[in-house]
Design brief:
By secondary structure, this protein is of the alpha/beta class. Helix content is 20%, strand content 24%. The protein has three helices and 18 strands.
Length: 211
Amino acid sequence: MELGQLLRHLEKGLPVEAGTDAHACMVTYSNEAMRITAELNGSYHTPEEIRRFVSTLTGKQVDASLTVFPPLYSDFGKNLTIGKNVFINSGCRFQDQGGITIGDGAFIGHMVVFATINHGFLPEERGHIHPAPIVIGRNVWIGAHATILPGVTIGDNAIVAAGAVVSRSVAPDTVVGGVPARFIRLIKATSGTTPPEQGAPTCNDSRLSPS
């Protein structure tokens, strides 16, 4: 199976069974992704060099506005799409077989995990892969150590608190946190001349997690 055929198969949400041509193709590109990320993560690279690595990993030319702090990990790479003015902090993991789309202006904190595949529940089907895409909207902020699970869409301007496990889609302009992630509050627009609330929590603050 060629890469284009595999991507179309995954985009339809069809399972990939162990031992099939689709699975063999996926393994081939997984090994390529491991090689590319090992080279990226193995030593210092300039921002321009990092963007070249990410372009090679994804098979798409990334925008010059992309900022990545390595290490970065991916176990496929070819189903990852990154918008403009995106910042990805160190240690993030992209399990992108099912498709990951990151919108313009997104901020991704340290060691965030994006997981787009599940396995069969039955022991004899445990090697089968079931893909579902993750879509991150524009200007989304994801706090450190959050985990985004298969099939989740995070709406524009939303914030995911540090350590959250997001198993359901998140509405635009909202803050979610906790395990599993739950609604915390709406995001209200503020004037640029208004000082922030004293001691207001940030995305990486545990106070955003529900009690």
